[in-house]
Design a protein that fits this description.
The longest helix has 14 residues, at 29-42. The protein is 34% helix and 24% strand. The chain has helices at 6-16, 20-25, 29-42, 74-85, 124-134, 154-160, 164-167, 175-180; strands at 46-50, 66-71, 92-96, 109-115, 135-146, 185-192, 198-204.
């Protein structure tokens, strides 16, 4: 798996911040809708979104939930904060934080949402360990991400593979290595977005 450096991720998303909603808003929206639908069914008291980005999902989480969103990109968070400021009467907190090193006590959240973040994380093992730590035992982890293997997307994955570190994204990203090998309980896997570009994985934090 290609190495990604944190500084390159930050640099990439500083560039993408003003363009992100236009480039990735609509095309990745079906996956977000499925994630938010699942969260609504769970209706968690405390939810954390790791990689909140520009805050495209913030207003659609359950109004009763205490919501915390973190991201490594200050430029993305600035846009997200503008969205959050318009939502009066909601318990919303945004913080600049690295998902591999979070400043929350163990078991702080009932549900962790990870939309389109796992494949841009420098050290996926550290990241997974950290989201499991801050999620309570028996809580829910929702991972929405692209995983390689689709025949339709094979050519695109091949073309961008060598650019992984430069663009802060891994196209060659195995479900078996990143999800199936961990000792958590996978409850469901659903293909989302155009022609199965992404998967929504629902996990119980055992």
């Amino acid at each position: 798996m290609k190495q990604i450096l944190l500084e390159n991720v930050i640099k990439t998303y500083r560039f993408y911040a003003p363009l992100y909603d236009f480039l990735f808003g609509r095309v990745l929206e079906p996956g977000r809708k499925e994630l938010l639908k699942t969260v609504a069914e769970i209706n968690p008291a405390h939810i954390l979104e790791v990689g909140v980005g520009t805050g495209l999902t913030i207003e659609r989480y359950p109004h009763s939930s205490h919501f915390v969103g973190v991201d490594v990109s200050a430029a993305m968070l600035e846009i997200a904060q503008g969205r959050a400021d318009k939502l009066t009467g909601r318990n919303i907190r945004l913080e600049k934080m690295d998902g591999e090193h979070m400043n929350f006590p163990d078991g702080s959240f009932d549900c962790i949402a990870v939309p389109y973040v796992l494949s841009v994380t420098p050290d996926t093992d550290k990241f997974v360990a950290e989201i499991r730590r801050v999620c309570r035992k028996g809580g829910t982890i929702l991972i929405l991400n692209h995983f390689s293997g689709s025949r339709f997307w094979w050519l695109l994955e091949t073309l961008v593979r060598s650019l992984a570190n430069r663009i802060g994204f891994r196209s060659d990203f195995s479900y078996e290595e990143q999800i199936a090998r961990h000792d958590w309980e996978v409850l469901s896997v659903k293909e989302v977005n155009l022609l199965g570009l992404s998967k929504l994985v629902t996990i119980r934090n055992t």
